C-alpha cells in the first residue's frame, strides 16, 4: 500500500512538474544537493528495560541542470542505524550505494529525479558472534525523489523532499564464512527530508 500510494503521488507530481516545464525554462548550472540527517530515539519501558536508537544518513546528488528542466547526474547514499539495549548485544545496519540520475528541476522550484542504483552493499550486525555479522553485496535497484525548493539566495534552494528506494541484494557472507552464498534480500524505504540544493 505504501508503494502504491507513493506511485500515485509520483504520477500526479510528474504531470504537474511537466506542466511547469514550458514556463520553467531558464538557467543551467552545476547542481550540488548534500543530504545529512541524524535522529536519536530513547525507549524506556521500565527502570531496567530501555534502548537507544540512533540513525545517521550522509550522501547527496551531484549533476548538471540544463537550460531546460532536464537534469543528469549521480547519487551517493550511506544510511546507518544502530540500537543499543540496556543489556544484550547491540544491533546495527548500514546501507551504502551509488548510481546514475535523470530527472526534472524547474526554475519554479519543483524537482522530480529518478536514480538507478548501480552498486549497493548492506551490512547487518545482530549480535557479537561472527555468524551474526553478515554483509549483503551485489545490490542494485532504484530511488525516486520528489521535492519543492524555495529560493533563499542566488544559488541556494531549500524545501521538503520525499524519497522512495528499493534495493535487492544477490549475495551474502557472514564474517565466519569463507565464501559468499546466494541471497534474496530486499530493502525498501520511504523518507521525508529537508533538501538543500545549490545551483552554480
Look up the CATH topology.
Porin
Number of helices: 1
* Strands, total number: 9
Identify the CATH class. Answer: Mainly Beta
Report Rg: 20 Å
- Give the distance, in angstroms, between the N- and C-terminal Cα atoms: 39 Å
Write a structural description.
It is a single chain. The protein is mainly β. It has a single domain (2-199), classed as Porin (Beta Barrel). The chain has 1 helix and 9 strands, in the order αβββββββββ. It has one helix spanning 2-24; strands at 29-44, 50-65, 70-85, 91-105, 110-125, 133-148, 150-151, 156-174, 181-199. Strands 1-2-3-4-5-6-8-9 form an 8-stranded antiparallel barrel. A hairpin with a 5-residue loop joins β3 and β4 (91-105). The two termini are 39 Å apart. The relative contact order is 0.17. Residues 1-25 have low confidence and may be disordered.
Strand and helix layout:
Elements lengths: L1 H23 L4 E16 L5 E16 L4 E16 L5 E15 L4 E16 L7 E16 L1 E2 L4 E19 L6 E19 L1
Antiparallel strand pairs: 1-2, 1-9, 2-3, 3-4, 4-5, 5-6, 6-8, 7-8, 8-9
